[in-house]
Each structure stands twice: as structure tokens, then as C-alpha cells.
Amino acid sequence: MSVCFIAALASGFFSARGSSNAQLDGASCAKDGTDAYADNHKGKCCSGIAPTKMRADAGHLNPWFECLPSFNVDDVCPDGSAAVELPASSPWGPVTKSPSCDENKGTFASYLPKMCEGDESSVVVYLNGENTEDTCMAAKVTDCHIDMSSFERLEADVRMKDCMGRWTAALWQAPVFKAQGRVNGQYYNQGFSGEYDYLETCGVGGGHTGQPETNVGYAPAGWRAPSPKPPSVSLDRQDFDKHWETDDDFAQHVTVLKDDTGDLWVQYCAMDKGACQITPQSAHYGIDIRLSEIFTGTTPSDSGDTNYPVPSDLKGKVELVSDIWNVAGGCGPRPSPPDVTCRMSVTNLKITGGLPNTPTCSKIMSAAPQGGEEGL
């Protein structure tokens, strides 16, 4: 036996098959964090994962291929439960088309959202770290629209890992009715449309810190709901945004409460303590939700734009969404990174008021009586 061979054995060069740095097909392999083509590794990663193309950097004059650590999405599920395939009975389903992704030249990941085992109210959205540049993943509750006229409150647990500074929204309400055209010079004003981001992260800049935030967006230039603007409504929508200080391992309970004036309040707090306490310092929508376009539609302005009334079956309706937009646009970093391992979960989701009474919607329905439409 040669001295070199003995030295190789002593150094642990030949790892046992099945370990994270196991030898592949009898050839040497590259360890996590190293160049898959250096030292005659021939593009083989010991983890068994395909190498990820990286941009040139201080240590590499040309683009190179890194062996990234094996990816585990289970760590955003509670109590050691696993992230498993979404069943057909889940209220959540994958999104395959969205302006946030499509208009920024993104494509949706070939793999699908998951849920935390044993909790059909839950969803797990993630990117697996492999060639994630210009890649998106999203899920939404399609068949359980929430009627905001009878909505009372939402409770959920939210976990995020490795997502700070990325463009994500772990949980937000999207308007089912989306008015078209321009009103008072505005094509879209988030905070007047019925959209509300309960938890979003963005890249640093433009008013964003990279930390999680609750926001209604910016609309300083005009009013998109019926004219004239009600005198009590502030066009400075960013005044109602709130940033939540955290590290890159976010795990909090969220409470969304509609008060008697129709305003929506959002507060985060420690898990396993029950509902969060709403205070004057909590984030809030800033107007009666009934003044938003999901109720009012839009009316012609003095420039003669078209009237867009809300269809009766969509009036006041929103749907819940969870997403990651790793694209070079919106509020994400530019360019979009190729090795994003952001993963996040929404679990123990319970909604009081506004839901249809159907078997699917019952999975996200609290025990309190619902005020939504009856299911057929």
C-alpha cells in the first residue's frame, strides 16, 4: 500500500457513502463551499447536489461553480415536524403567474410549495439555493376569499430563515378585484387597492431597511378610489408602515384585527402566548378598508378616465398570499443572487369572520362563528 494512499485514508479523504461529504462514483468530490471543478473534482459535489454557478469574485477571476451545503426546509416547521407535499385538500395552492415575477423577467421554481406535516392550515415557501437567480415561488389561498366587510381577525405563526434583505412577503392580503386604467394620474396605489402586506422584507434602500415590515406602500401622488378624496384620508401611506427589528431567524405570532372604524391593525409578538396585544404603536392600514377599491371600484377623474365598478361577487374580497420574488426588480437586491436559501412558513392560521363555510376553508377557520358567504 502506497504512502499516499495511507495518507489519504488517514485524512478521511474517502468518506463513508451516505455522509454529507461522501465520495461519488469512485471519483474525488468537492466539499461544501468549494469549487466543484478545482483539484480535478470534475463538477462533483460531495453533498450530491449539483454545483451552482457563481459570479467572478475576489477569489475567482471568472465565473465558477460552488458546491452549496445540502438544503433543509424542515427548519421552518414547528416542533421538529417535516415540510411535506401540499395535499389536494389544502386551502393553499401554488402560484404560477404574477406581475411581480413575470414583469421582472423571473420564472417560477420547478419545485412546489409545501406544508408543515399535520397542519393543513400551513404553507412553506422557499428557494433551495440552486441557480435561484430570477426565480420565484408563491402560494395563495384561492378558494377561500375573505370578505373584509365581515372579517374580524387573523391569527398565525410566521417563521423565516435567511430571508433578510430579500424581496419576500410571508403573509399578505391581495385584492381579488384589481381596477384597471389610470385615475387621477395613478395606475395603482397599493394602500388604496385593498392590498396589505402583513409581513414583507425588501433590499436595503428606498425607505426599506432589509428588516421585516408591515406596509401599505407609497402613494404620494394621488387618490385612486372615488373622487373627491375623503378629507380624513392621508395620501402619505408610508406613515402607516412599521419595521420589526429581528435577526435572520424570525419566529413570531401575528395578529391582524379589524376595529370598529374598519381600520386593520397588525402586531407581532412571541409565539405560544396567544393573540398579540394591539396598541396605538401597532402597524395599521390607516383608513377604513371600506374606502379601498375592493369596495368602491374607481370612478372617472377630471381627466376622463374610465369608471371601473367592482363586480358584486368580488366586492370587498381579498385572498392570502405567501411569496418570494428573487428578481432584479421591485424591492429586491440587484442583481438577484443565484444561491438564495430563503424559506418561510405560515402555520396555525386561523381566521375569524369573512370566510365561506366550506370543508376546505374550515382548515383556516377559527372556532368562532363566521360571517362570510355560505358554501354551496
Q: What is the structure about, briefly put?
A:
By secondary structure, the chain is mostly beta strands.
By DSSP (H or I, 4+ residues per run), the number of helices equals 4
The appropriate CATH architecture of the largest domain is Sandwich
CATH class group of the largest domain: Mainly Beta
Domain count: the total is 2
**How big is the Rg?**
24 Å
Name the helix and strand elements from N-terminus to C-terminus, one letter apiece.
Answer: HEEEEHEEEEEEEHEEEEEEHEE
Largest sheet: 9 strands, mixed
Q: pLDDT below 50 for ≥5 consecutive residues: which ranges?
A: 1-26, 369-376
- CATH fold call of the largest domain: Jelly Rolls
**Global shape:** globular
The secondary-structure class comes to: mainly beta
Strand content: 25-35%
Number of strands: 19
Q: What would the average pLDDT be, to the nearest integer? A: 85
Helix content: under 10%
State the distance separating the first and last CA atoms: 77 Å
In words, what does this structure look like?
- The chain has 376 residues and is mainly β.
- It has helices at residues 3-10, 99-102, 190-193, 293-296; strands at residues 52-54, 64-66, 83-85, 92-94, 107-108, 114-116, 123-126, 135-141, 146-147, 153-161, 168-175, 196-201, 213-215, 242-243, 249-258, 264-269, 283-284, 317-326, 343-352.
- Strands 4, 5, 8, 9, 11, 12, 13, 14 and 18 form a 9-stranded mixed beta sheet that branches. A 6-stranded antiparallel beta sheet has the order 7-19-10-15-16-17, with no helix packed on it.
- The longest helix is centred in the first third of the chain and has 8 residues, at 3-10.
- It is globular.
- The N and C termini lie far apart (77 Å).
- Residues 1-26 and 369-376 have low confidence and may be disordered.
